[in-house]
Amino acid sequence: MEDLELITKEELAQLFRVPKSFVDEAVTARQILFTRLGKRYVRFSRENVRQIHEQGFEPAMTA
């Protein structure tokens, strides 16, 4: 059941150290992965968080 742990938009914002408004905008624009529960509730699984992290990964530039 540990894999089914879901976090809220507030918790995701804290995890990535960004404003909650950033998460809200990204969800509205469907720029990040999320799980919708009913019409109102948005949650993020561990897999969603991993994929969001990978989505933003940029390799170091070499000279």
From TrEMBL:
* Annotated keywords: DNA-binding
Q: Name one GO molecular function term.
A: DNA binding
Superkingdom of the source?
Answer: Bacteria
Protein name per UniProt: Excisionase family DNA-binding protein
| Organism ancestry | Bacteria, Bacillati, Actinomycetota, Actinomycetes, Micromonosporales
